[in-house]
């Protein structure tokens, strides 16, 4: 794999998010990524229906294809996404709380795309709150190309580190131990 240039990692989580996977290989999104120096896109497609990319079937296993000048690697699941997050210059993902917190704690740029097909759309609420605090960008699949350019040209606030003592003190206070 080419080691020069930037890598974008995309995760849809364990659900179906066909709209995000489809949007990623649209020419305007790929062009925006290319303009920002990206040469690789790694897509964790989960249970999404991804029939072909440039004629290559990606329903089973790992598929690599060249899409509008960017190397695209697609696979469904891995035990851990930590290595992918660490290697990425940008993470685009469903707006699940676990994904967002894991990515932001690594200090990575993130575009959160809420999956609007999910019940109660809690993903949108979380993503919008974190965007208002300048930790990430949130957008719909329609606005992905513009959001890529914005994410790569903007400075973000650093997400707070985990502090287990806070939980302990809240629990102690609630239980009357402090």
How would you describe this structure to a colleague?
- The chain is of the alpha/beta class.
- The protein has helices spanning 18-24, 27-35, 82-87, 97-105, 122-132, 144-153, 164-175, and strands at residues 6-11, 38-44, 52-53, 56-57, 63-67, 70-75, 90-94, 109-113, 137-138.
- The strands form two sheets. The protein has a seven-stranded mixed β-sheet, sandwiched between helices.
- Helix 5 links the parallel strand 8 (109-113) and strand 9 (137-138).
- The number of helices is 7
**Sequence of secondary-structure elements:** EHHEEEEEHEHEHEHH
Main sheet makeup: 7 strands, mixed
Low-confidence stretches: none
Q: For the terminal residues, how far apart are their CA atoms?
A: 55 Å
Radius of gyration: 17 Å
Strand order of the largest sheet: 5-6-2-1-7-8-9
Structural class: alpha/beta
Sheet-strand content, in percent, reads 15-25%
Counting DSSP E segments of at least 2 residues, the number of strands comes to 9
Task: Give the overall silhouette.
Answer: globular
Portion of residues within helices: 25-40%
């Amino acid at each position: 794999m080419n080691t020069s240039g930037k890598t974008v990692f995309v995760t849809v989580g364990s659900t179906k998010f066909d709209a995000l996977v489809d949007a990623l290989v649209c020419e305007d999104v790929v062009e925006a990524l290319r303009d920002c120096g990206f040469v690789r896109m790694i897509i964790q497609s989960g249970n999404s229906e991804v029939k072909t990319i440039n004629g290559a079937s990606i329903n089973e296993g790992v598929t690599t294809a060249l899409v509008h000048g960017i190397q695209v690697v697609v696979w469904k699941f891995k035990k851990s996404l930590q290595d992918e997050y660490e290697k990425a210059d940008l993470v685009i993902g469903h707006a699940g709380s676990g994904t967002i917190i894991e990515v932001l704690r690594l200090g990575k740029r993130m575009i959160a795309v809420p999956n609007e097909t999910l019940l109660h759309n809690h993903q949108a609420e979380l993503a919008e709150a974190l965007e208002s605090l300048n930790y990430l960008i949130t957008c719909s699949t329609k606005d992905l190309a513009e959001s890529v350019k914005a994410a790569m040209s903007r400075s973000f606030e650093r997400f707070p580190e985990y502090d287990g003592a806070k939980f302990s003190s809240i629990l102690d206070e609630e239980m009357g131990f402090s």
